[in-house]
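User: Before I run my own analysis I want an independent prediction to cross-check against. Here's the chain; please return only the structure tokens and, at the end, one sentence I can use as a sanity check.
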Amino acid sequence: MADYKYTPADFKSDQEVRWCPGCGDHAILNAVQRALPEIADATDTPHNLFTFVSGIGCSSRFIYYMKTFGFHSIHGRANAVATGVKVANPRLNVWVTTGDGDSLAIGGNHFIHAIRRNVDLNVILFNNEIYGLTKGQYSPTSKLGKITKTSPYGTVEKPFNPGELVIGAKGTFFARSIDMEVQLSKECMVAAAKHKGMSVIEVMQNCVIFNDKTHADFAADKATRAARTITLRHGEKMLFGANREKGLVFENMKLKVVTVGEDGYTLDDVLTHDAHERDTTLHVMLASMKYPDYPVALGVIREVEDDAVYDLAVERQVEEVKAKSKIHCVDDLLHSGATWEME
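Assistant: Structure tokens:
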């Protein structure tokens, strides 16, 4: 790649951004456009190899606001289309922008199997716990009891936790951020791009029209987030709070919130985050934490290298078959096997 250094402006299209004022999607777009120049430099990826694929939903307008190649597919099929794009051209740096309704409802099957196959895709899952584009129906992540247009008396379904779903489907990379935390979202995206295999970043995003303040109990402002969320970084102690005075310890086969310096707990007792641990037990526990019993985990929760990357395996298989094959062109194919001459 040339020595040219990209800037966020290089990835901004000339299209008017038509999300509602105050929508969390604006912040996610900002984070992606800030991340891509760093990703291009870190992964030696030129501008023309970035490709965005979307399904249907508010998040799926994303591709129009990116000055990259894009494919606006159909509802729930973004991960399937993106898999085809990546397998057809493994050189591409492929991103999927999708919502909780798009990928966890009608697209749930495509989502979990793309994870299981470990396709080298970077998926940004916009989670506002509602169907926004179709005007406020409950989604697979809506809270139990949520009153919406399709659940006027409250939902009777337990919601999905995307982190549990990803790790349970053999996911090798899962991160979580909040729309307002643009720098953290950017860090997660850069880490996802460097990861070889399927990367899923859940961004907990606000829909100001149909599900306003759905994450407000832990994400309302910086002070609230400091006390009610924990940002995990590999190799660092699991500390949180305004003064990082609280931490997570492991006792009686479960996580426990403690205050350092109280009840005999010291900094040595606090867990150190190991995102590279292959065993899923602690990663699932971290992804499952909910306020008020626990802080909500943010940052890169799981990042495990696995040689079984689907698109690379397909590419190797194709090359192996081609090397052994006696057929190298259409003429070889036409003259192979049993042939007859008609007189």
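Sanity check: The chain is about 30% helix and 15% strand.
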